[in-house]
Amino acid sequence: MLQEQHDNSRTGAAIGQSKRSDLVAEEIKRLITSKNLLPGDKLPRELDLQEMFGVSKSTVREALKSLEVQGLIKVSTGPGGGGMVVEVPLDRTFQLMQNYLFFKSVSIEDIYQVRRLLEPELAASAVLHLTEADFAALENNVHCCDPRAESDTDPLTQRQEEITFHDIFAAACPNSFLRFSCEMINEMLRQLTSFDNRMRVSDQRKFGVVNTEFHERILAMARARDVEGVRQLMTEHMNEAARSVTRMKGKLKGRLILDSEMPRRSLVARGRKAVKRPLK
Fold it and tell me: Could you tell me if 84 and 74 are in contact, meaning their C-beta atoms sit under 8 angstroms apart?
């Protein structure tokens, strides 16, 4: 039983400070780890969890709901329903990270300081893993964001969509932690950046043209499988992007992101089919 298990490993005071459903949630996490459950695998039935931990139905359901909010499982009802392990979505992770940063002093210059370090290495590590589908998605993104092409899209939306170019490289990166770090930065820039100035349309267009030219050159280097060439170009691109954002008086919005505001972005939204790459 749950109480007996925790009496052996925790003091009575510690148990008293925790809700029973929280303890059950922790035990379910241990179960997921010990059985090496993967996304798509089902948890034991609610009744089995009740018997396993010696708790009520309501306690099990509250524990499952807590894990669902954390993004670790998905709970379905009806015959064959119950808890199923899922991969924690980036949008949920981003929201939790943004909630944490809400109480910190973080500027867009801080973000670019980190981005200048990570993005060139990410792009270089992705070069040898890019597929023809990736190249097609990159070419499509360059064309859609090119200010020189006829488009009804406003310049700011184009600048936000340019981040998708970097998302495609991130999705091909074999280093899961590096990929996660850069995707988080990309999402922060996409969701939280605002520009407070009166920059002329011609200057905004120039900014977009510079970005497009960098993306075209990076894409050409990537097609040639030139790892060092991509790393160098991405370094130059990040340095120029940081300077441009400063000129445009970019800043991070100081507000919390609501569930209703999250775009539920996925690889499909990045211009490619949602093909899962294994975490390494």
Answer: yes
